[in-house]
Amino acid sequence: MAQLIGPQAHLKPAAIVALGTGMRMGEQLQMKRHQADFLRNIVTARNTKNGRPRDIPMNDYVRETLAELCRDKRPDDYIFVSPKNKKSCSVPRLTDS
Question: Of residues 86 and 61, which shows the higher confidence score?
Answer without folding.
Answer: 61
